[in-house]
Amino acid sequence: MNVGIKIEMKKITVLLFSFILLFVLSIGGAPAQASASKVHLALGDEKITFNEGQPYIEQATTLIPAKAFLEGLEYELSWDAATSTLYASKGELSFELKRGQKQAMANGENYLLNVAPKIVDGILYAPLRFLAENAGYRVGWDAANRAVALEPQDSKGFFWKVEKDGSELYLLGSIHHGNEEMYPMHPELNAAYANSEHLVVEINITVPMSEQRAADIEDKYMWYNDNTTLADHIDPETYTQLKSLFEESGALTAEWDSLKAWVTYMQLLNLNSAQDGYGGALGIDMYFLQKAFAAGKSILELESLELQYEMLNNFSDELMSSLIKETIEAFHQPDSSIESMANIWLDGDEAALVEMVEAMKAIPEYYQAIIKDRNVGMLEKIEGYLEDKSKETYFVVVGAAHMVGEDGIVTRLKEKGYTVTRL
């Protein structure tokens, strides 16, 4: 970093920080120059100091000299004296900060700050976490040493831009269950999302479902209505192991035996995911769905709930029994499949993702339904978006496994003559 920030090349050995307690401090605000409020900053192993002004804490929020910080990250700055507004840009990334206003913008999106930017001794101060995370850095806080550690958020997951004849579309490979390590989301993803007119997901679960529709779906797809129970559809040993595991996890309910095998399998996956610290609320698609829903942005679907349930409902008893058995056997193993998938996503390891998709072919029934057949329908809709004469931009978030391999959406788009660039 340069231009207003001096970095001392010195190893920081005391930065044992927590990614959970981000600036949640018990100390209130204080004047900018009070020595008791001094906060130490480091970018990786490099200590950050400012030529003018010092970071300080106000209302449990760390404030820093905004112009010097952004200049050090090589942003281009401009200052509108008439409106007391700072503008900063770096490629697709941008900031807009106005003195005294809690409303701010980063990468094309609106944010509400805990503390408004302010000028102290002629220097504009703004919240560090807001600036750092939207510039692409994870933020850690070491309360004992009043130290902030910044680390680059290197992973962008699996992200492509598709172009043809003036149309463009973004493809983001998602994992549906995530954890906090995946956030903050890389700012270039947020910028692409903000610059798109439409968010496209597999299913828009933010749409309220009528009681009648919910009852119809539940009755048709989720319960055995033919006087059989789960015990009639999976092998006895697996059934006994499953019951014991549900009892152990506190998930055994009075009606569990009437749920279809695929529903039971999904419950088992959710339990395993939660045990390893992952959940649907932190999934990549859910992250963007929540943003779009809050902003009133257009949300489109590639599939429907009924289509997915119909697919799952048609799996054979042999396949479901096998999948349940394998999940039970791996339930208490240290290396879970969800963790492996999360690491592949964080590393952006396309070769590992392709290998995982290819391994699915060992179970033809599973691969055909989950990947190959669904990709046909998804691809048809995606091509329709690219042929949209309005030339509006679509930000498509779909399971990463649908993107790669010989039947993958990215592969097929390239074969059809679209320009597809990994970002």
From TrEMBL:
Record-linked Pfam families: Cu_amine_oxidN1, TraB_PrgY_gumN
UniProt domain Copper amine oxidase-like N-terminal: residue ranges: 45-149
Protein name per UniProt: Copper amine oxidase-like N-terminal domain-containing protein
Lineage, broadest ranks: Bacteria, Bacillati, Bacillota, Bacilli, Bacillales
